[in-house]
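Exercise 7. Predict the joint structure of the components listed below.
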Amino acid sequence: MKAKVYVNLKPSVLDPQGKAIQHSVELLGFDKIVDVRQGKFFEISLDSGVSESEAAAAAEKIAKDVLANPVIEDYRVEIVS
Amino acid sequence: MKFGVIVFPGSNCDHDAYHAVSKYVGQPVDFIWHRDTDLSSYDAVIVPGGFSYGDYLRAGALARFSPVMQSVKKFAAEGKFVFGICNGFQILCEAGLLPGALMRNRGLHFVCRHVNIKVENNDTPYTSEIAGEKVLSIPVAHAEGNYVCDDETFSQLEENGQIVFRYCDETGEITDEANPNGARANIAGICNLNRNVLGMMPHPERACEELLGSTDGRGIFSSLTKAIAASSH
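Solution:
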């Protein structure tokens, strides 16, 4: 069982790293890029005895309390069995 | 009167803070390892600058789980003084002791130079000894100093006088050019509602020695000393 957690800056928060990446990508010749936002991806492996609902609850708590800072970031959890 | 300086793995301004307190405050000061949890003998703790836990995940995010931080929360709730500098400010925000968050600098660069900051509120334990809206020259050294908070938090900070320091030019004007990191409303330091917890990005402990180019940091330490003396009577 794996939990995948995606953490991204809230849309209202400026992402200077995303802007710098966008600029570099544009230098490669891609001129139709509207925006680049940088985020974080976590893959959490869980014990095989853990049920899908337990995994979802655990991942949700881990994402909320540790992986994301709710002041500036949103998160999304996916469970992969 | 006794000060403590918390040491996390990766703290690197702990000795600077220790030096400033022992030499300019002239009071006993201990280093407190992050696994220690007994703060009962201290009147004030400094959460120093550096790169606690290598800034992994987010600056300050992992330090908040160190055992000492539970004690720091209780210490702050008792009205005792908690002073976070740079990474210490980031840790206090992550720990929920101060509102908002510190993000990557607007210009992406690590900014390491003297900046000017203006004292916006003299009625705090950290600024009472600094005259008027004085402009202080204090060094910054950070990559994540861009203070952000939502509109509601910002209005509360303003209404309650919690914005203690703002970046300004040498004449005290709050300008965008004087903002080294993109912080909202040029915020360089804030306090909690009770004013016993303060976080700031600039390093006053590095501005206590003539040799280092500025002694403007001393007023913050002398204010704090006076506040501790007053609170222990």
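Discussion. Residues 52-67 of chain A form the longest helix (16 residues).
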